[in-house]
Amino acid sequence: MRKNSIKNTRINEEVMRKLSEIIRSDIKDPRIQPLMTSVVSVEVAPDLKTCKAYISVLGDEQAQKDTLAGLRSAEGYIRRSLAQSINLRNTPQITFIIDQSIEYGVRMSHFIDEVNKNSTYKEMEDV
């Protein structure tokens, strides 16, 4: 199975959906705030042995570290829940990675807004 095949894409989407559901409703670790944690994307290897889950956490750096530590400690439970809900030949070993692309996008949007606000004032002064 190739990496970008239709089957692999469907598996990635299904694993991402189930992983989001497990994090949101099943995990009781106090370090993980389910409303502040979202699964951005999932990459399951073509052999179904490993999986990279990109996680976005709304909050400061300490909240991100706590959430990542909580997810890593609950990795066995998450994998078992995933195996029960998805019928795959192999249940992948999950590696959680913090994804800061959403935070980066918000910061860039703020910078663009600042530039636009400053430029409109200067244009109005020139008129």
Structural class: alpha+beta
Terminal CA distance? 62 Å
**Rg, Cα atoms, Å:** 19 Å
Overall residue-averaged pLDDT value: 87
Q: How much helix, percentage-wise, in residues?
A: 55-70%
Oligomer: single chain
Total number of beta strands: 3
Low-confidence stretches: none
* Sheet of most strands: 3 strands, mixed
Which strand-content bin applies to the residues?
Answer: 15-25%
Q: How many alpha or pi helices? A: 4
Going across the biggest sheet, name each strand in turn.
1-2-3
What report would you give on this structure?
It is globular, with a radius of gyration of 19 Å. Helix 1 crosses helix 3. Strands 1-2-3 form a 3-stranded mixed beta sheet, sandwiched between helices. By secondary structure, it is an alpha+beta fold. Strand 1 and strand 2 form a beta hairpin. The protein contains 4 helices and 3 strands, in the order H-E-E-H-H-E-H. The model has no long low-confidence stretch (mean pLDDT 87).
Q: Which key phrases capture this entry?
A:
127 residues, alpha+beta, 3 strands
Which helices and strands appear, and what pairs or packs with what?
Layout: H1 6-25, E1 37-44, E2 50-57, H2 61-73, H3 75-85, E3 93-98, H4 101-126
Parallel strand pairs: 2-3
Antiparallel strand pairs: 1-2
Helix pairs in contact: 1-3
Provide a quick synopsis of the model.
The protein is of the alpha+beta class.
